[in-house]
Every structure is written in C-alpha cells, then in structure tokens.
Design goal:
495 residues, mainly alpha, five-stranded mixed sheet, 6% strand, globular
C-alpha cells in the first residue's frame, strides 16, 4: 500500500519546522537564479525595478524554475497578500512541502523494494542527514533537481520492481533537466541499464523517450520564448559555457580529487561509515545505485569549478545504502541510530541558524527604508563580494539599490577584471573616484567588518555614521568579515 496520511502529515510538519530553522544563506544562486528572477517577472507589468544577473542576459538559464515562484508571487498578489515576509517564506515553504513528499516517496520505494523495516531505516537516515536539512528547503535548482531525482527513482523500473513506469520516470528526469541541465548526469547509467534490460527497446525509444523528450523541449522552449522575447535553447548555452568554454573556473577551481576527499565526505558527514558498510552489504541488484553515485562524482570531478551542492542529487542514493546498513546492524541498531541523530543535530542547527546569517538579517535594515517618506531619497550601496545578499525579492519596494558586479568576461579579453575585483584592489581610491561629487553619495553603505579600517577616512570625511552591526559568521575568510556594518550618511542641518 501507499504511505499513510499520518506519515505524510508528519513529514510535512517536520520539513516545515526544518524550513523555519534554516535562516542562513548558503549560495547566491538560491535568490539570484530563482526568487530575484521571479520577483522581476511579477513586477515587470507594474513598475520596472529588479535586476537580472548576466546569466539571463546570455540565455544560460531557463525561466521554468523561477516561473514556479512567479506563480506563487502572482497568487499572493491577487489575494492582496504580497507582504514581503510572505514573499520570502511562501516559496521556501512550498519547497519544504515538496521535500516532505520526496522523503515519503523514498520511504515507499524502499518499502516496495525491500520491507517496512529497511524503509524506516532509510527514512530515518534521510531525516538525520545534516546536509539535506540544510539544503532541502532552499530555493535552489540543485534542491529541485534532487527532489525530482527522488520522484523519478520511485518510478524507476529496477530489477524486481513492479512499480516501474518508463513514461513517468523519464518525464520526471526530463523536467529535472529543464530546470538544471546537469540533472542528466546521475541518470545516464540508470537509463542505460534500463535500456539494456528492456526487451522491447524500440517501444521504449519510440513510445517513451522521443515523445517525452519532444514535449519537454517544446514546453521549455515556449516558456523561454515568452519571457526572453526570442527563441533561446538554454540547455545548449549552458553546456557551451560550463563544459566547452569551461568558464565556470571564473568562480574558483579545485583539485580533481576534491569531491572524493572533501565534497562527498562532508555532505555525508557521520553517514559515511554506514554508506560504505551498506555498499558492501547490499544485494547485487542495487549496484546500479552505487554506479550512479560513483559515475556522477567522477563526471563532476572533471569540471574544475566544484561545489558541495553540485553532488547533492546523489545523496538520496547514498541514504539508501546507509539505511540498508543500519537495518543490518541488529543489536547495535539503537546505538547507531542515536549516534547518527546526535552527530547530525549540531551541524544542522549550527549551519541553519548561525553560520552566514548576516546577509539575510541585514535585509531587514534595508526593508525599514521602504516604510517611510524617505524612500525616494534613499540610495543603498552594498559593498560586498557580489551577490552576497538577496535583492528586491527581500525588499519588495522600488528602493534605489546598487551592489558591486562581477559578470565573467565572455569576449575572451585576457586582462579583464570585474567591478568587484577592481573595487577590492583599492577600495578607498575606487570610492573617491566613483563618488567624486557629494550629490552622488549613497545614503546608506553596507559592508563586511573587514573593510571598515581601509575606508574609515572616506566614511569620516563624507559624514557617515554606523547605525547597525549585524552578526554574520564565526569563520571570516578573505573579503567576508564576521560582522556586517550599516552606515548612514548624516543629514546636514543648515544653520
């Protein structure tokens, strides 16, 4: 049978709690590739404010994912409930509900393949995972890709499964690829394996693959045509930029072994020994899941720009093996489960509530400028590594705002330096040159504590005073300080 309504309710309640206990920022993309775009889609027909990053100008990103949030925004607007707090939390709650459904799908799948006991263990491992807790309620394409991977997995015709549905799982993979083209990677070994064991190969290709492919590409093309105003094949541009031109390195590069030595061990955390144990124990027919994990990590290892979230979609596969291991620990099961829960609790709460929370907290100081008559004169300048904070999606009023920009160079100019790098090479000189006239000065400056000393003469000379200090992180690195300062320009009193 299917999951009980009780389990579903419990799962949703848990992920909703999860959502509210994650109040930190992870990566800029959770706003800039989703909420900011959606907010601009909503605002465009009312008043033109908002900002789209360079990826959208170059047609590297599709509108399918932001469209989900734009629809939520539109519904809130029609209900007259487009309050900024709701604009911030409702998309995340929607993501949390989807995550809860995915958790339950994973449980049902294991229950069908194995038994209720193993299913409970896998579900427990999934709920314990600190990285899942940290990421699953965020508005990131990686999160959506992971959830769709779980949904697709529950329809995948693995040997011995009677629940498989080729059409369903292929459609879900296709949707994941539209949202994030790299979603194809974990599915290459799985689809290939399915193809090899399928008796009616021609039927699979002609009746399933081709129709699903055409419908998804068509829908994706039309959606992007509506919002870009021209025909754009986003997936092709994405591939060209990330793989062929390898311009992702602009955002940092890591050694080839990074995912094996740091990436996977960190996101698995204390699940790692259980994962290894489960891989050794699990029957042969689950080897394909392990293949998917190894293959994905290998493929990502060839790209020089590496991030933890890129391999998030393999986590559900890993949880399967962790749960399998836990179930077979017999006498040690209770202590192992307690160990997993306790060892994940601290990282989950610390990363969710403390680490890197400043860039979200500081937005409430900016929002206050919306409410008073001062709004038209206010000008907020965010002097931080670019895209450190969200933007209009967390402000929701046409306040004048600016931040340091950092688009990569697409023309092949060797000596190119972006605005943020130019600024950081000489902050004081940059500020004096940029704001050579007092009338150009921003009313508010927002920056990390590490910058204060260097620009203190500018602040004093131009009459700025500190109005707020916001905690950000215990581990400041480079341009990112432990605190964020808000400075306001003193209004002169004419005698």
């Amino acid at each position: 049978g299917g999951p009980t309504p009780l389990l579903l309710a419990l799962a949703v309640a848990l992920r909703a709690l999860n959502c509210f206990l994650v109040q930190t920022s992870f990566v800029p993309d959770e706003y800039w590739q989703s909420l900011e775009v959606a907010h601009r889609m909503l605002i465009l027909n009312i008043s033109n404010y908002g900002y789209l990053t360079w990826e959208w100008a170059s047609g590297l990103r599709g509108y399918s994912y932001p469209l989900i949030f734009a629809s939520i925004y539109k519904a809130l607007q029609l209900l007259g409930k487009d309050d900024v707090q709701l604009l911030i939390w409702v998309p995340r709650l929607a993501q949390a509900v989807l995550a809860a459904f995915a958790d339950v799908k994973l449980y049902s799948l294991v229950r069908h393949l194995e038994n209720a006991e193993t299913a409970k263990c896998v579900y427990f491992c999934q709920l314990c995972s600190w990285f899942t807790w940290y990421s699953c309620t965020r508005t990131l394409t990686n999160t959506m890709e992971t959830l769709l991977t779980i949904f697709a997995l529950s329809c995948y015709p693995i040997k011995g499964s009677k629940m498989g549905s080729s059409c369903k799982y292929l459609a879900l993979i296709a949707l994941a690829i539209v949202i994030r083209p790299t979603a194809v990677i974990p599915w290459i070994p799985l689809v290939f394996s399915h193809f090899l064991q399928e008796q009616r190969k021609a039927v699979l290709i002609l009746h399933n693959c081709i129709p699903v492919g055409l419908v998804t590409v068509g829908t994706s093309l039309i959606t992007d045509r509506v919002f870009f105003g021209e025909w754009v094949l986003v997936q092709l541009n994405f591939l060209k930029f990330n793989v062929l031109q390898n311009l992702g390195t602009f955002y940092g590069s890591h050694p080839w072994h990074w995912y094996f030595t740091q990436g996977l061990p960190v996101i698995l955390g204390t699940h790692l020994p259980f994962f290894i144990h489960g891989c050794v124990l699990a029957p042969k027919r689950y080897r394909i899941f392990l293949m998917a994990v190894i293959w994905t990590v290998l493929v990502y290892s060839t790209l020089s720009h590496k991030e933890f979230r890129f391999i998030y979609p393999v986590l559900p596969f890993c949880m399967f093996f962790c749960g399998y291991s836990l179930k077979h620990l017999k006498a040690w099961k209770k202590s192992a489960a307690s160990f997993l829960l306790l060892s994940n609790l601290l990282p989950a709460l610390y990363t969710g509530l403390i680490h890197q929370r400043g860039t979200l907290d500081v937005m409430s100081h900016i929002r206050q400028l919306c409410n008073n008559s001062y709004q038209s004169q206010a000008f907020v300048f965010i002097m931080m590594p670019c895209h450190s904070t969200p933007f209009y999606s967390h402000v929701h009023c046409p306040l004048k705002m600016r931040f340091l920009q950092c688009p990569p160079d697409l023309t092949g100019n060797e000596s190119y330096i972006d605005e943020a790098d130019v600024f950081y090479s000489n902050p004081l000189g940059w500020l004096n040159k940029e704001f050579y006239n007092d009338t150009l000065l921003p009313s508010h400056l927002i920056f990390f504590s590490v910058l204060e000393e260097e620009i203190s003469s500018f602040l004093a000379l131009r009459g700025y005073e500190k109005t707020a200090t916001v905690f950000h992180t215990h581990v400041p690195q480079g341009r990112v300080g432990s605190h964020i300062y808000v400075y306001r320009k003193k209004t002169e009193v004419n005698h």
